[in-house]
Design a protein that fits this description.
The protein has 210 residues and is α+β, with helices and mostly antiparallel strands. Among the domains are: 1-50, Ribosomal Protein S4 Delta 41, Chain A, domain 1; 101-188, RNA-binding S4 domain (Structural Genomics Hypothetical 15.5 Kd Protein In mrcA-pckA Intergenic Region, Chain A), CATH 3.10.290. Helices cover 40% and strands 8% of the residues. It is built from nine helices and five strands; from the N terminus they run H-H-H-H-H-H-H-E-E-E-H-E-E-H. It has helices at residues 8-15, 32-35, 54-69, 73-85, 90-99, 102-108, 115-123, 157-164, 201-208; strands spanning 127-129, 132-133, 146-149, 175-178, 183-186. The chain has a five-stranded antiparallel beta sheet, covered by helices on one side.
């Protein structure tokens, strides 16, 4: 499967905000957004963030959402198409689909310091869903699903240290987690107010509805 292989800090600088793609580093003074408050590129220092057109604002929101969740364009379009077919507010449903991806939930539970790291844990077979190993990061979870670190993987230093230092994680009320068992559960589908991402989803809807 295709994936973005460029520098993660460049993405944050382009959006002008922290996307928290490098875990703990994003909370320190080493964060590129803090050290280099300008867009990447040869003429980045001289570039001024001019007032964007309505289309430009819509495009930026879509790009921001893609980059936060680590999804490429085609897959993102598919998520939007699924959201559009469901009854309800399309923008909110889109975010709900993205939030209930397995890799995102692993991150929200505090088992990984970032979504890219969560994706690696899933791909390397360290995560079980309802007692079965699942190695597909985009696996869509349902209410009641139990997410657990496999028995053989529970002693991994990376997982243990992340769980012990979960002071900055974004675990939400729609998730439940047992520190001792390294086991979490999807309690409910999150409402928009319980999805802490700086995205104006309505702009994305407007972009794809043209």
């Amino acid at each position: 499967m295709a994936k973005y292989k460029g520098g993660k800090c460049r993405l944050c600088r382009r959006e002008g905000i922290r996307l928290y793609l490098k875990g703990e580093r994003c909370y320190t003074e080493k964060c590129a957004v803090e050290r280099k408050g300008y867009i990447p590129g040869e003429h980045g220092r001289d570039h001024r963030r001019a007032k964007e057109t309505p289309y430009g604002q819509q495009l930026r929101e879509k790009q921001k959402a893609r980059r936060i969740y680590g999804i490429l364009e085609r897959q993102f379009r598919n998520y939007f198409a699924r959201a559009e077919r469901k009854k309800g507010v399309t923008g909110e449903i889109l975010l709900q689909l993205l939030e209930t991806r397995l890799d995102n939930v692993v991150h929200r539970l505090g088992l990984a310091s970032s979504r890219p790291n969560a994706r690696l844990l899933v791909r390397h077979g360290h995560i079980e869903v309802n007692g079965r190993r699942v190695d597909i990061p985009s696996y869509q979870l349902r209410v009641g699903d139990v997410i657990r670190v496999r028995e053989k993987s529970q002693k991994l230093v990376m997982i243990r240290s992340t769980v012990e230092n979960r002071r900055r994680t974004e675990m939400q009320a729609w998730l439940d987690f047992d520190d001792k068992k390294l086991e979490g559960r999807l309690v409910e589908i999150p409402s928009r107010e319980n999805i802490p991402v700086p995205i104006q989803e309505q702009l994305i809807v407007e972009l794809y509805s043209k």
